[in-house]
Design a protein that fits this description.
single chain; about 130 residues; alpha+beta; GMP Synthetase, Chain A, domain 3; 3-stranded mixed beta sheet
Length: about 130
Amino acid sequence: MAKKRIKQLEHILLDKISRILSEDMSDPRLGLISLTGVELSPDAKFAKIYYSVLGSDRDLKSTEIVLTRAVKYIQLKLANIAGLRYTPHIVFMHDESVEHGFKIEEMLREIGDTERDDSEDSGDNREE
């Protein structure tokens, strides 16, 4: 399948699965989830759905359980609303890049705070 068509299908899958999760699933164990991407196989038979969860490790684990158990339901709903000839087999994958970005941002903030403290300390020494 052409790369352009694969990209179109990935966008459709991301939109439709996001909609299914937000409108059709009411499981309280499903945390604050954000779908971050879709990677569709060249034959469009398999899709990796990447997601991140806002919250604790416990929230992440409970969301993983809900998504794993709901795969067949999501695929069925997807088949009904996406208008695709074949519905790909989906696998949910936790996307750690968001958490990694937060950690980097926190480290940079700490470095900035340390540099600010050091410059204030050196400024205090000049005044003496």
